[in-house]
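Hi, here's the filled form for the chain we discussed.

Project: internal
Contact: R.S.
Residues: 127
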Amino acid sequence: MANLRIEGKRIEQDRVEILGNCLKGKDAKRWVDEYIEFIFECWKNGFSEKTYNFTINHGVALNRKIVLVDFGELNFTKSKIKGEIKSQRWKKSWSFKEDLDNDLRKYYGKKMRDNLTLSNLEKYWKS
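And the returned structure, exactly as it came back:
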């Protein structure tokens, strides 16, 4: 999270650069790899972002680390995450279908398929 603060009806977060903007540069594939590592960090803490719209729901903080900016899209149920892995839910996301160029879409699809596995979920979940 980007230093999420909830004060009454007011929600504040640190300002970040939206991840989709970073994917337009020469380091795009590195950011995909970092996003996958971010997913593992979320699994270690017992949750996952359920829409996989990483280009718009995530940002890059001043420390150049990926953070989640849309905390309303969280899933805390391991069995549901298993279903998302089995169905390759990320392929249904707007980010995958609309917001990546063909080269990056192929790279992202392969990296997600290779890394978002049931065995990795077991390895990282609440570890």
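Let me know if anything looks off before we file it.
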